[in-house]
């Protein structure tokens, strides 16, 4: 009996793991196609160096802006340039001047910069190069103050703490930017949770994955395996039970067993999407429209608790379910490998 419950737990965890991986994959694909990470970083840099445009932050402040403004509105990233840093800056904004010092680590992506992560040390070096071009820290601070740049405050604090030591000033800028990147990462992850939640909901509805129904199917699989074992021992009653499950093979118990075992619970649960595919023994895959039954499942209140369980399970993410799956199955992590 314990093996039945273990099978049930492993089956549910494996399904949640695979669906969570699918959600993460779709999210990562959208992030790469739309350049979300780069837009997020340069929106922050625009706010920090140039100040909000029209007193409005480039970083989205509402959930609606997470899905609309950041991916699709005006792109805060500077245009890509293959040229080396110029001896005399031609940029009209401070973020543009920063990009001039970072172009050597860039490559083209849809005409915009592909820089989505700046090492704190590289940022500090870029600022020091700008300092040199302006003729000193004091001159740069004066220009930042005149332009109303939010960068003036952190730079002034770092310069005062350095007491005129340029190495200490550079280290102070590096530490400040490192802290800002950590804060920005936490902010980005908070917005990503909303995207993951929406994708998890859509995936749950598209596959109409009822976790409670899936659990029953897993228990049914165990019962079917018991029937197969009985059939192998010549159990006529079990054979008749199997025949009821596959009317296409009323007189061939071997074909019947093959058909039943080739459609386990997971195969059946992912077959509830609007479009399903069946792979016959011979010939090409057969696609069929399943929209009517799929819609019926969505509007049937009996499936809603299972949908809700699936949705909340996907919010935990693939790393969580991988860890649970690893513990249940006894899979060991190799030396030096860690799970996040």
Q: What structural category do the secondary elements indicate?
A: mainly alpha
Q: For the residues shown, what is the average pLDDT?
A: 79
| Strand composition percent | under 5%
For the secondary structure, the number of strands is 4
Rg is: 29 Å
Topology order in helix (H) and strand (E) letters:
HHHHHEEHHHHHHHHEEHHH
Helix content: 55-70%
Main sheet: strands, sense, barrel? 2 strands, antiparallel
* Strand order of the biggest β-sheet: 1-2
Contiguous low-pLDDT stretches (5 residues minimum) are: none
Overall, the morphology is elongated
Number of helices: 16
**Spatial gap, N to C terminus:** 33 Å
Summarize the structure.
This protein is mainly alpha-helical and 340 residues long. Helix content is 66%, strand content 4%.
Keywords for this entry:
4 strands; 16 helices; two-stranded antiparallel sheet; mainly alpha; 340 residues; single chain; elongated; 2 domains
If you had to describe this structure to a student in words, what would you say it looks like?
By secondary structure, the protein is mainly α. It has two domains: 2-14 and 208-329, no CATH class; 35-194, no CATH class. Helices cover 66% and strands 4% of the residues. It has helices at 2-34, 36-50, 63-67, 69-72, 94-102, 120-134, 137-147, 152-162, 166-206, 211-232, 236-245, 253-261, 265-269, 291-299, 304-315, 318-329, and strands at residues 108-109, 112-113, 275-278, 286-289. A two-stranded antiparallel ribbon has the order 1-2. A two-stranded antiparallel sheet has the order 3-4. α1 (2-34) runs antiparallel to α16, α7 packs antiparallel against α8 and α9 runs antiparallel to α15. The longest helix has 41 residues, at 166-206. The radius of gyration is 29 Å and the shape is elongated. The relative contact order is 0.12. The mean pLDDT is 79.
